[in-house]
Amino acid sequence: MNRSFVSSFRFILIVVGIVACFASVFGRLFYLQVIDQEKLSRIVESNRKTFQVINARRGDIVDSRGELLATTTEVYQIGVDPHAIKEEDYEKASALAAILRVPESEIREKFDTRMREVNGPDGPELRDIHWHKLADNVTRDALMRIRELDIRAVYGNPQYLRVYPSTSLAAHTVGFINKEESAVSGVERWLDFYLRGQDGWSEAERDGRRRELVQFQTREVQPRPGLNVELTLDMVIQHFAEEQVQEIVKAYQPKGVTIIVSEPTTGYLLALANYPSFNPNVFWKSPSEALRNRAVSDVYEPGSTFKIVAAAAALEEHLVRPQDELDCSLATVEYKGRPLSLPKDSHPLGKISMEEVVVKSSNRGAALLGMRLGEERLYKYARAFGYGEKTGLGMGAESRGLLAEPSRWDGLTISRLPMGHAIGATPLQVHMAMATVANRGVLMQPQVVRRLFDEHGETAVSFDPVARRRVISSDTAYTLSGMLAKVCAPGGTAREAAIPGYEAAGKTGTTQKIVNGRYSSSHHIGSFSGFFPASSPALVITVVVDEPQLNGVGYGGKVAAPAFSALAEKCASYLGIQPGEEKQMLALSER
To answer: From which residue to which does the signal peptide run (predicted)?
Structure first.
């Protein structure tokens, strides 16, 4: 008879093994449910709940006639949920890669990557991946073709792409958005708060198959689109200005060019063109130098265009009359009890009237006017005309220029400043100083924005003309305008600025650039700033040409004045500007 039995040792071993297995299971459950409960609950909650930002549409930028300069188009960001990929979807990876224009190997890698390690509060944690980005800026047509592949795990989220339909036209004024969707320059940056709008968001729960459970949707806030911006620029005039820039570049291959056009009575800029320029759609293809707005950032010695300050101040203070003579044959004069050398003129002038000092652009005559004014009054009027301070345009990166206080002047400044040396100015400062004369003595704040409006066309914010201060009386401005009209007439220094059928007024400027600490005889900046019609100004135009390449000196009357004339003629025809009372203006300064 056989008797089966189990030894006590084997029995105990089996019991201990079974107890150990149950103990380890219960221990693990205790650890997960009690000790590590908070961490695991957080991971589950993060995988179950979703928070999605709903981007707001950025507002448009248009010109004064409603032409689009910057707009936002809807595109899609395509991604995949690798946990929802099916076996048959791998066969469609090649077609998906072709539509998205990305390597197939990259597509397959993201199909297979389902977990990632992240830094949690208690150290590294593994999280499920439910969204792998495959491509950005995908068009709606491409999205439709992707849907035809019937890969349910691949879907698109709408996003916005900034587009500049006019490419480089008015690029420095409009500015651009970089690849990180940050506003970098121009109106885009200045008014970014209003343009970008307010993003919305939604929070919801999803099931194990990543399907949204509507009954558990906690909250949804709709985005608020950004406001649209209407500029003061007129794209037709902007186009005219940029055509003239290209003509100058073609003729003289300069280092830089700036042209500004504005209304003297409002301060509204109708055109602002710079060379070199850039295409904001592909801004990264242009050198950083091309992105700079030279009109407000570049500082140069304005030269003879500054002489209107000394002339206007002397007339305003009743220190001189237009017919009073000044002896420009003198090389040295006594000033405050000591001899002071005067700057040279391009050719001997002898004794000439104060009016001829302006018309013939006498350096010595301007110096004599400055000395009659004295340091304090000359400085006061220079500041009053806007030199040494920002114009208030508001587009950022604007220089205030260089204008030292009288206490810091050396012995020659009183005779050099009146002719536009010993001072640094931006093209816009020179432009607004001339606009002050055209506006009968009132300095306006330059503006490039007319209003902000919503998607219904209703005005939210209006930018009305702003008068900063009265600089000189209307009588003084009118008298000076008569002198500046003769500058553009036969016998003046800006004969080539004359406009057929109109009376123009303005002033040339030619300065030597400082190279290696000394004034260079081969590096010049030629400029012209003026307005028309002289008796009833409608437009102010400034042209600045940096280092024109030609045989001889790049005089403003040669390289800048013709561009003023050509541009003014086109603008007059386009805007229907009528000629002013020419004979009355020409005779005014002779009284």
So the answer is: none
